[in-house]
Amino acid sequence: MHELSIVMSVIEIAQQQATHANASIIDEIELDIGSMSGIEMSAWDFAWKQGVRNTILENAISKINLIEAKAKCNDCDAEFPIEHYYDPCPVCGEHLISIIQGKELRVKSLVVS
């Protein structure tokens, strides 16, 4: 379960930013997670609950923005929603596409006090 190692990295980022802001408490954390980021959300929820125990994020509100994946066809330039890497362009049927959205995995914001 790689979600736990990602949660631990998020905790480390949050602690660094709180230290930089001279804050002792993080009230809220907002994350962007793309549908093609490789995160299984049920595993994420479990890892989050376990990982934040006894950390600066233990009582923080966690907001997650789920970013739906979009691709662009390299042949006809059409942009379209995508669920799998191997999905073809719905306009021309080609498989040569670029993922332009949906692989995000980032801390978007922190509210500290």
General description of the model:
The chain has one domain (3-112): 2-Layer Sandwich (hypothetical protein PF0899 fold), CATH 3.30.2320. It is built from 2 helices and 6 strands; from the N terminus they run αβαβββββ. It has helices spanning 3-20, 41-51, and strands at residues 26-34, 61-67, 70-73, 79-81, 97-101, 105-112. Strands 2-1-6 form a 3-stranded mixed sheet, with helices on one face. The chain has a 3-stranded antiparallel sheet with strand order 4-3-5, with no helix packed on it. Helix 1 packs across helix 2. The relative contact order is 0.26. The mean pLDDT is 95.
CATH class: Alpha Beta
Mass-distribution shape? elongated
Cross-sheet strand order for the largest sheet:
2-1-6
Which percent range describes the beta-strand content?
25-35%
* Helix share bin: 25-40%
Can you name the CATH architecture?
2-Layer Sandwich
What does the largest sheet look like? Answer: 3 strands, mixed
Question: What is the straight-line distance between the termini?
Answer: 32 Å
The counted number of beta strands is: 6
CATH topology: hypothetical protein PF0899 fold
Question: Radius of gyration, rounded?
Answer: 17 Å
Secondary-structure element string:
HEHEEEEE
Q: Which structural class do you get from the secondary structure elements?
A: alpha+beta
* Overall tally of structural domains: 1
Overall average residue pLDDT: 95
Number of helices: 2
Multimeric state: single chain
Question: Uncertain segments of ≥5 residues (pLDDT<50)?
Answer: none
